[in-house]
Amino acid sequence: MSTVAYITVRGLFGRRRALLLLPLPLLVIGLALICRSVGVDADQWGQAVVQGLGLAVALPVISLIVGTGVLGSEVDDGTIVHILTKPLPRRDIIIAKLLVAAGVSAVTSAVPLFIAGVLADSVKFGLALSAAAAVGALAYSALFLLLSLVTRRPVLLGLVYILIWEGLLGRWVSGTRVLSIEQYVITIADKLAPTSMLAGKVSVPVAVVMALIFAIGGTLFAINRLGSFSVAGETS
Amino acid sequence: MSDAGVIHDIGYQRYQGPRLGRRAVFSSLYQHGLRAAFGFGRSAKSKIFPWGVAAIALLVAVINAAVRSQTGTWLFDYYSFADSMSWLVIFFVAIVAPELVSRDLRSGVLPLYFSRPLRAFDYVSAKVAALVTAAWLLLGVPQFIMFLGGAFTTKTGMKGVWHELGLLLPGWAYSLLWALVFASISLLIASLTGKRAFAAGGIVAVFLMTTPVVGVLSVLPSDTSRHLAGLASPMSLIAGVEAWLRGRGDLGIDVGDFGVIYGIEAFCLIFACLLLLLARYRKVAAL
């Protein structure tokens, strides 16, 4: 299991595409620094940076790239066969990959959010943001890991979820918020450190329970899918 | 043993038909790109995403035309139709651009392409032209439906139709600007990686992460930075160009006296992306 995790980490960071993960966190920190140094009131820029860029873009996009990268790229390359033929329970493979994905996306999104939160309000707000981001990273990773098993176009489906479901519908149709991980993250962060910058739109129990359902349900279903996984060629 | 480097003539028949040149290669690459953009000639699975996006755009246009013919008021005019479809356009180029260039990188056909009388310029311009046409069709056809709706319900006869046409043509030009900006940026990003998945993620990330920058820059305590904030993101850049050319200040973006800078940046952005694309294809690896 630790070998699977090690191979996954090397697959993520061993190539140039790991650099894709850098610009988003740097942009969050950079914008927060600029606003802070110019001396704008945090109420004006806090929401744009923390929610608009950090929670709505950086966290889901990083989780999408990492979450579909850990398993999806192995499926694409066909190297998944080497892992599947080893005498390992499929459960261990999924859990190892999920832990790596969630860990990497949690670190790369929680650190810039912590810094932005400290610059915007207080250390408490920063800690609340990074805790909520970690929960969100786990739920997103489980979802995108599952997507890379049930479909051959996981990134596009993930983008549909982020752009259309969370971005477009979540803004106007209130019912879709119950199934939007972004709203859980906002609610949890707002509960841990109430500020005027974030406004949670779902109740706290719903947020926590649904985030857990996404994480655990996604993992269980992914284990089930990998149990009967068939290797196919390139999509047409 | 014969001299090294001699190719023996073992009697196969030579090809004596016409040899098509660069223009034929260009036009077949363009046609193939345009067909691939909408999934023609591919399986049903690869038609889902592009046609899903196109269906939403068409649906919005039909609803818009219906509402207008019933009540006489627009939900959107031709310009704001393109603006309000911006998320769809982002998603569309994120699907199609990797399909056009990343696939070639991944399957390693570029050395084969470039061993033909095809130059990097032809390849790049065929791909750009295909994506620009596809993205323009995505916006232009719904606009044409809106035009038909307006033209058939006009109360002033032929004069009304001409008036409507006068509104449609600038709207089409505006959609062309959208298509040019989005196509050049997304092809540049997609040409960097052979994985379609990563290319799609990268394209969306670039467009999404620039939007909040505009919001942040516009709250800085300086009029100049407020007027120039829109330069930071392609979407607000195009809206700024529209505000400059139409002399409107009520479009949700305030360009002040800097409108011409928006025009210059839009031009330079497209031009720079195309030059970088050309530089990208000066050398292609043979896997």
From TrEMBL, chain A:
Q: Does the keyword Membrane apply?
A: yes
Q: Which named protein is this?
A: ABC transporter permease
Record Pfam families: ABC2_membrane_4
The root-end lineage is: Bacteria, Bacillati, Actinomycetota, Actinomycetes, Micromonosporales
Highest taxon above the source species: Bacteria
Give the record's keywords alphabetically.
Answer: Membrane, Transmembrane, Transmembrane helix
Residue stretches spanning the membrane = 52-73, 94-119, 125-147, 154-173, 202-223
From TrEMBL, chain B:
Please list every transmembrane segment annotated in the UniProt record, as residue ranges. Answer: 48-66, 78-97, 128-152, 172-190, 197-220, 260-279
Keyword Acetylation present in the record's keywords: the answer is no
State the name under which the record lists this protein: Membrane protein
Record keywords: Membrane, Transmembrane, Transmembrane helix
> Any coiled-coil ranges, and where?
none
| Keyword presence, DNA-binding | no
